[in-house]
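Hey, resending since the last one bounced:
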Amino acid sequence: MTDDVRHYRSTTNTVISIGAWVCVAGGAALVVALSAARAPQQLWGLVPLALLAALVGELFWRPRIHWDDAAITLVNPYATVVVPWTMVVDIDTRFALTVVTPRRRFRSSAAPAAGAMTLPHGGRDSLGPSQEGGALRKSDALGTDSGDAAYIVRGVWRDLVERELIPLGRAAADRARIRVHVGAIALTLLLAAATFPALLNL
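The structure tokens again:
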């Protein structure tokens, strides 16, 4: 591990984001074409498309996980959580990659657990480091968002522990920092409020 900040972003979320934005762009082009051919009020159709694009950006594109020697950062829709490594007691994957601390559990939207239709790749080769010799939990399997992220993050955590870079005895004193994405929330609410009258004007 180097001093550079590293990160993880879900491949699934990336594909969904790009696919949705391509569809939104196609819809916007159609709205503009219809407004030119029929009536300018057709341009109101751009408002719900803008809302959709903003929601895709927040729910699928923005989520990611950063880490450095000091903390792990979970960038989620509408909020970012910075958890010092000194507070981490476990990395769970039951519903999503979850950083467990003595007081709270912080889930990452960037690494959701595998769904009922998700088939992880690799059989026993998919076992994460904490599953070797045991039953494979699908959410821990490599080839799933939660499993891939957990494998990486656990490796980083183990490396920091082995290099004695995580001070002991600070779990109760340190605090996670939560930053709300006020601008993103305001933009979403503004577009949501504008969507209803925009649809009435079509």
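Residues 7 and 170 are 25 Å apart (CA to CA).

Sorry for the duplicate.
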